[in-house]
Amino acid sequence: MNDMWKINFNHSMYAVLMVGILFSGCTAVVMEMGKKAFEDRNTEDQITDTKIAAGILSRLSDRDTSLLLDVNVDVWEQRALLTGTLDNPQEKQAVAELAHRDSRITKIYNDIQIVTKAEKETRREKAEGGNQNSKEGIGQTVDDIWINTKIEAQLIAKKGITSVNYRWRSVRNNVSLIGRANSSAELAMVLDIIKTTKGVESVKHYVEINPVHP
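Structure (tokenized):
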């Protein structure tokens, strides 16, 4: 794909997306499509990753529908990040084993945190009133979502960062990050922004540095 073709494609996609925003009631869905149109992930990877995440969530639901209130799933180029909270290590391992059933997955990062049963139930109650439209799970509280939103606003505004190439989750003020950086300098900027975001206590990242070549 040459540069001129990419520019024309992106402009065309932008026009389509703007029409969708104006004439459909699904602004959130359209905006998510907009992000994907500008990712460095190719279309095949996007489709595969979406299917992998959907499969993991389906298997979690088959085991226990309440797990969808506990666990988040983010997949980037067939690498899966699991976040959320559970109240015993055995269930955490069981979730990872369910994810591993998809042979397309190359790596699984299990950042699910172990909490007390009382805290897990409290988070479930809060999550039920949170991001109900998420396709990757809804195991996040209002506080988690607020931190995620602050991070997103800063990454979008920072020159030199392609924010659509990253996925992050705040769980109990601990942020997990996956995706692709075009350079070590870009990754350093991303990590600095997240670490200095108010409310963030720690950051783990599973970002690969893999520049996109024309």
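The CA atoms of residues 147 and 199 lie 7 Å apart. The chain has two domains: 3-37, 43-209.
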